[in-house]
Structures are given as C-alpha cells and as structure tokens.
Design brief:
GO terms for molecular function: acyltransferase activity, transferring groups other than amino-acyl groups. It holds the Pfam family Acetyltransf_1. Keywords: Acyltransferase, Transferase. By secondary structure, the protein is α+β, with helices and mostly antiparallel strands. A 7-stranded mixed β-sheet has the order 1-2-3-4-5-7-6, with helices on both faces. Helix 3 links the parallel strand 4 and strand 5.
C-alpha cells in the first residue's frame, strides 16, 4: 500500500482539504487545544503553501507533515520543528512513514541537522510511532497540561538528520 502513496509540498489548492483533516485528526486525546480554523485565509496565514508536506493516494490527501524553524534566530536555523497528522481512516497504511522519510530528505537538502516535535504522554501510539521513526526523548514537561480530569506530560522528542 505504501508504494501507491505520493508526497509533495503543500499548495494553495490544498487548504480546504488540510483544514478538514485538522478537524478530523486533532481531538482532546492528542492535543492540548483542538485546532479550529475560522476561515481559509486564517489557515493560509498560519500554514502557507510549501510549509507542509502532504501525502495522499490517488487524488485524496491523507496526511500532512508541517515544518518550521522553532524561532526566527539564525542560531536556530539548523532545527525544524514538525507536526504530523494522518486521516483516521488512512492510519497504519505507511503514510506517516512516507512523510517522515520525505521530511528527513527535505531537511538534509536544506542543511537542517535536527528534527524536533512535541507529543502528549496520553498518546502512546504516537510516541511509539515516533520512536519507530528514529526519534528519542530529549525532555519532558511533567504535568504540563490538565486534560479531561488528568495531568498529562508534554514529551519533547528529537531525531538527528543524516547529512548527505
């Protein structure tokens, strides 16, 4: 199945599908604040074309991986912070893996040395996926969020980028 998955940089025409994907994916169990876009313009300001890798099958977008530098500092340009979302009906089909491979290639081509991400401790499937993709824990913000009656850690993970 993973062989029929395509990956490319996001385009203006993807905005509506990506907004819908955010609505489907980001729920109380996997994010401290559910993503809600008020309109297409707001989405495009936050996620301009080319700031995400999108993956799909046939003509349907099934997932994305957003990336950006954590700060505007020149001394932090070697790091990309990422976030990933895969449509619930398309999970465990190799889409997330393809997106991770693609961002590592893109990062290497841009001279990036480190990928970082944050994941809630209440999302063990995501933590396991990131570990499978070569990420390791670099820190933990203990009881950082109070969600649905329980304190949840925010796990900080990272992966080195192999330079070609």
């Amino acid at each position: 199945m993973a062989n029929s998955v395509w990956v490319r940089l996001s385009q203006m025409k993807d905005a509506s599908e990506l907004m819908e994907l955010d609505h489907l994916v980001w729920q109380r169990n996997n994010t401290p604040s559910v993503v809600q876009w008020n309109n297409r313009e707001e989405f495009l300001r936050k996620c301009p074309p080319g700031s995400q890798l999108v993956a799909g099958m046939d003509d349907k977008i099934c997932g994305y991986l957003g990336f950006d530098h954590p700060t505007p500092l020149e001394s932090n340009k070697h790091v990309l912070e990422i976030n990933i979302a895969v449509h619930p009906g398309c999970q465990r089909m190799g889409i997330g893996q393809k997106l991770m491979e693609a961002v590592k290639e893109l990062a290497a081509a841009r001279g990036v040395r480190k990928l970082s991400l944050r994941v809630l401790s209440s999302n063990p499937d995501a933590v396991a996926f990131y570990r499978k993709c070569g990420f390791q824990e670099q820190g933990r913000l203990v009881e950082e969020f109070y969600l649905d009656g329980q304190y949840v850690d925010d796990i900080l993970m990272w992966s080195p980028v192999e330079q070609s």
